[in-house]
Structures
1.
Amino acid sequence: MTPAARTQAAIDILDEVIAAARGGGAAADVLVARYFATRRYAGSKDRRAVRDLVYAAIRRAGEVPVTGRAALVGLARDDDGVAATFDGSAHGPAAIEHDEAAAVAGAVPDWLSRALSASGLAVADQAALVARAPLDIRINRLRADPAALATELGGEPIAGLPDALRLPTGTNVEPLAGLVEVQDAGSQIVTLAACAKPGQHIVDLCAGGGGKTLALAAAMDNRGTLLATDIDRPRLSRLPPRAARAGVTIVEPRLLDGGREAAALADWQGHADTVLIDAPCSGTGTWRRNPEARWRLTPARLERFTTQQRHVLALGAPLVRPGGALVYIVCSLLDAEGAEQIDRFLADRPGWTAEPLTLPAGRPRGEGIRLDPAHDGTDGFFVARLARPC
């Protein structure tokens, strides 16, 4: 593919990404993969170059661009090399008109910028939300010696996380499946709030594919009981093979029926030492990996997330034994999903208290701790640990 043809391919893909963002369609990485699945002539360098153009344009435009061409024209305004590819050649885009509309540069949509600012995240720090994310891994101490594997792999150690490494972007970790898990340092840090120990009885209430479940199992030294639940069958189905590769045998996956979760969890009422809730959320802390997600979020969708969060908190609280703890996590930087949810929870449940947390990164926010890309170099998270009265 010529440079011009690569730019036109990026424009075509961006048209699909924009339509998907407006209509709730597939994610950008899926659309990129689909595009090249029917274009076998494109080599690996072509695919990489086109993907880089697509994501550069997505990261640059805070508001949803009108078209894919407008997104790339905006990128061309900042990059003479990209501008030169608008040459009107047979497979390339037409030349840019002098007064042609271009996507406006920005970190996030205006309404979200205001909401983040109101939640204590300065405008100057919001650009970090869409910067490129590093490659962090957690070494699985059930199957590998962290020190030995760290020496073998190289990479950078991450302060406060003896099982973590930051590897060069693009490192192929697939041959290490089971020995390591790809997991952002922030995700590893907030999981520490569970204070998981061998022999405990723990519930991972919104387990999904099991990233935090497997981290909990390693902290428990594969001893105790670990119930992993979710209402999403496809996501939860990924946990058993991952657990098998990781040598984890204490996990019981349990698929819940939405709206009937309490009945399915009756055998755990008042039994768990810790209930970890990695709640469904806006994902404002994970835009480094999914930058087009900020185009999908609306005030109405945010309200649905906060309603779901109140639901899972109400579902998890009765599972905690007297004297036990509930750990609430969201990969969001909005107070509506973090500090304000905890304030509401404590106001509605006399006797419950927020326990102080000491974590390797993050800063106090309300009754919890918040991590963000600008200050901590991790994905964004809010975490709080709540103790049930004895």
2.
Amino acid sequence: MAAVSIVAETAADEASREALLDRAMGPGRRRKSSEKLRRGRKPSEGLAFVARGADGAVVGTVRLWDVTAGENGVGALLLGPLAVDPSLKSAGVGSALMRLAIGEARRLGHKAILLVGDAPYYARFGFSAEKTGELAMPGPYERHRFLALELVDGALDGAKGVLKAAGRKLPKMAAAA
């Protein structure tokens, strides 16, 4: 991890980030249910990060997105994708990205983070399916992989229904690309 630095993502990182996501997640990544919530939107303000190797190359990424958690309009964040270059798996890059993302979300006053992912991996950061029972993703997903972390106790109490995209929209031309 010593040769990796984590910084705020910039517009110049976009092509490298997309190439990393293709390498790490494969071609089916754009068909995921969580992608529907991200399409045409910008990440939540101040919550998009990249990890750079010693040569400056993007070797990891994480973003958080504004969503509304269900019918009663509970504001939350959707985390994802989290990806690390396959050559650096198990080097601590993903964990470092997660710790930073959660810490920044908390610092910025967000109340809860949701994601679809591997429960054993995300449990180490406090995520569980305990608060997602009445919530749903738009489109197909594996229910046991739908996890939440409350940054404020009780933030998801009473939340039910389908997640909806919220937050900043991309300019029309960028959203079409």
